[in-house]
Design a protein that fits this description.
disordered C terminus, mainly alpha, 82% helix
Length: 451
């Protein structure tokens, strides 16, 4: 038991930071769950169209997330080293990067909207998806700005206000969905496009609210930028991108594996695509717990690096590996036991969709543990600025293992949706093993340098 004491001591501070982050992440995901449930009540085809459009959007979104991740790492280091001025500069440069990249991605999605028919989706899905796709494209810039501001607050040790803002976003998004999807309070019934309108409005208001809170918060005043425009540093942008580009690559490899799995589901028909949307929504909701834990772990490891306390990196991360695995084991048990009931919450009157979604949730139960471990491993490695080799590991996991196996078994082999999801599980297991092993190897080096 004495040997466990250092790890147990680190769990308390990590959980204190992680708890509001997890609630915030779950709140973000619950917005997607609310969308899926409310769109599902509008019909199976709108649900399938939201899955297709949302998964393509997800590729652009995770690229932005990856580029913004260095803000939390570098602000946490500056905070650990007692340099609030540096934290302010990382925030200012991060917001500028979010605005520029968000606008570029919105334009790219606008161009892609003219070519969605090339993805081979069912005609009824293509007929529904385009207005929704363009609307959620317009939410990219505000959501990336919000992400930078939220990471700054969390890295400075103030995660509770972002959590409250995200909780408020759930209610606002649900209300706006009710108004615009179904046509209440004098609004036309826009159907799926109404969900896109709700998304844009909710994300824009969230960015405005968190900016105003931070601007007025005395707790972060020393690290709040005295000016926002001009005198940008090329070196600061380079520092952000040096971590952000490989991090974006890692997230891109994973997200595209899920996105193209969704495309393959579309080749199998609207039932498979709608079932996939239900299962991936549930698995993603569970994933928010280790993701929030991973974000807190990365910030604490970064602070330890900034403070020169290198031996603590290993105990902080390993304690989180164990806790993340335990949390995901609980979710796996829930999916195994109540999978069919959960699927029925989304589409109560389509037996084929419920049956297939329940089968996919059984597979999700199997890969929950490795999914939790791999995200904590990736975050811990980013915190010590090790991003290139992890990017190669992630590429191999999803583009060498998951996608080819899913295509060969699920599409060419005729084994269908279950085989595609089994291939994703294999990729996640590969990533978990090798990311965890690499962090363990690097933190054994006496001088603490990443190889």
């Amino acid at each position: 038991m004495r040997g466990l004491n250092p790890y147990l001591r680190e769990l308390g501070p990590t959980l204190t930071l992680a708890a509001p982050i997890i609630v915030g992440q779950v709140s973000q995901m619950l917005i997607s769950v609310t969308d899926s449930v409310m769109i599902g009540h509008a019909g199976t085809v709108p649900l399938a169209a939201s899955s297709f459009g949302g998964n393509i959007f997800g590729i652009f979104y995770v690229l932005g997330i990856g580029l913004m991740l260095p803000v939390s790492i570098l602000v946490a280091r500056a905070h650990g080293a007692g340099r609030p001025g540096d934290a302010a500069e990382y925030l200012r440069h991060g917001v500028a990067l979010a605005v520029c990249f968000g606008m570029i991605e919105t334009l790219l999605m606008g161009g892609l909207s003219l070519m969605l028919d090339r993805f081979g989706q069912p005609p009824e899905v293509l007929a529904e998806v385009n207005p929704f796709f363009l609307l959620i494209a317009g939410s990219l810039t505000p959501v990336l700005v919000y992400l930078v501001l939220r990471q700054f607050a969390e890295a400075m040790g103030h995660p509770w206000a972002p959590m409250v803002i995200m909780l408020g976003g759930i209610g606002l998004n649900a209300l706006l969905n009710w108004i615009f999807i179904f046509g209440h309070w004098g609004s036309p019934a826009f159907g799926l496009a109404g969900a896109g309108i709700a998304t844009v409005l909710t994300r824009t208001l969230g960015a405005i609210v968190i900016f105003e809170w931070l601007r007025r918060a005395a707790a972060v005043r020393a690290a709040w930028p005295p000016q926002w425009f001009g005198n940008y540093s090329r070196a600061r942008f380079a520092e952000l991108l040096r971590i952000g580009i490989p991090a974006a690559g890692m997230l891109l490899f994973e997200s595209t594996a899920f996105a193209f799995s969704s495309v393959m589901m579309g080749w199998l028909g609207a039932i498979a695509l709608a079932s996939h949307q239900i299962a991936i929504t549930c698995a993603s909701l569970a994933f928010m717990f280790p993701l929030g834990l991973a974000m807190a772990t990365g910030m604490r490891v970064s602070r330890a690096v900034g403070a020169g306390e290198l031996p603590r990196r290993r105990t902080i991360a390993f304690a989180s590996f164990a806790l993340g695995g335990a949390i995901m084991a609980v979710f796996g048990l829930l999916f195994l036991t109540f999978g069919r009931t959960i699927a029925g919450w989304f589409v109560a009157h389509d037996e084929a969709v419920v049956t297939l979604a329940a089968q996919l949730l059984v597979i999700a139960a199997v890969f929950q543990i490795v999914d939790g471990i791999q995200v904590i491993g990736a975050s811990s490695l980013r915190a010590i600025s090790d991003v290139r080799i992890p990017a190669v590991i992630t590429f191999a996991a999803y583009w060498v293992i998951a996608l080819p196996a899913g295509y060969l078994l699920g599409i060419r082999g005729g084994l269908g949706a279950v085989a595609i999801w089994s291939a994703i599980a294999a990729g996640l297991a590969f990533a978990a093993v090798f990311l965890g092993w690499r962090f363990a190897r690097l933190t054994r080096i006496p001088d603490g340098r990443a190889a």
